[in-house]
Amino acid sequence: MANQPTSDNYSGKFPDSVPFFDFAGFIEMSRNTLTETVKQNSKLSTTLQALGKEWTEFVGARLHEESQLLQTLRECRELPSMQRAYLQFWEKALSQYGEETQRLMRITQGAVQEAAHSAQERIEATNGGNAHGSGASPAKKVSPSPRQRA
To answer: What whole-number distance in Å separates Cα of residue 12 and Cα of residue 28?
Structure first.
């Protein structure tokens, strides 16, 4: 009985395959991560360009309005006409700032929704590939909040 092999005894032989670090798998994972990062950075860059363009155009329009105000004030001969010019300037400014805020928010919201959708697809693709026997739970769907739906 003492000579019977047990699973706890070392047989003195090397296994058929020596477990080494999976460099190919690591490189593939790194490549996929870098590819996705490049895609997201490209989308972020496009969004920042759109925001910058929109803001630059807005500031240009506001500067034009300010120069128009100065021209109007130069032509004013009485206090009531100056007050009207300022009132019209500030009413228009507040309206334009509100509209610009909405435009910038739409650009930003669109970019965030696109990024969330892209991430959701990536999660589903990853879970779908690993779901066989891994016990992975399905990814939660991203749904707009009540504020976004309004």
So the answer is: 35
Quote the pTM value: 0.61
Could you read off the pLDDT of 106-117 as tens digits, one per residue?
A: 999 999 999 888
CA distances for 92 relative to 50, 113, 124, 144, angstroms: 24, 31, 48, 33
User: Mind listing the pLDDT tens digit for each residue in 62-100?
Assistant: 999 999 999 999 999 999 999 999 999 999 999 999 999
C-alpha span between 140 and 2 (Å, rounded):
57
The rounded Cα 55 to chain-centroid distance in angstroms is 19
**Is the distance from CB of 120 to CB of 142 less than 8 angstroms?**
yes
